[in-house]
Amino acid sequence: MRITQLLGRLGDRWTLPVVVALSEGSLRFNQIRRVVDGISQQMLTRTLRALQRDGMVTRTVHPTVPPQVEYALTAMGHSLAKEGERLGQWVLAHLAEIDGHRARYDEETDAA
């Protein structure tokens, strides 16, 4: 049950894109929003809080006026980013094959 919950959250629409965005280094909130296309402010806040709670992201508040907040991956977050990048490479390597299977399936289903 706990594994299923965590896999579900890690496999949601926004977690891996946020983690991969942070894999190059720390970013401020709006920088992450610009990199992760289509994410709303509310979803980014939720995603970052969940990643921080799970120990994959750190949040650093700099004592400036106004305060600047940076997010960065922990060692565990970096290991997740590597797995996310591997998964993305797998998808790219098999995308044409998957498209072919989908087209054949759709043709067969439409014909029936």
UniProtKB/TrEMBL annotation:
Pfam families: HxlR (PF01638)
Keyword Transcription regulation assigned: yes
A GO molecular-function descriptor: DNA binding
Keyword match Cell membrane: no
Keywords (A to Z) from UniProt: DNA-binding, Transcription, Transcription regulation
Residue ranges of coiled coil: none
InterPro entries per the UniProt record, alphabetical: HTH_HxlR (IPR002577), WH-like_DNA-bd_sf (IPR036388), WH_DNA-bd_sf (IPR036390)
Domain HTH hxlR-type: 1-99
Protein name (Swiss-Prot/TrEMBL): DNA-binding HxlR family transcriptional regulator
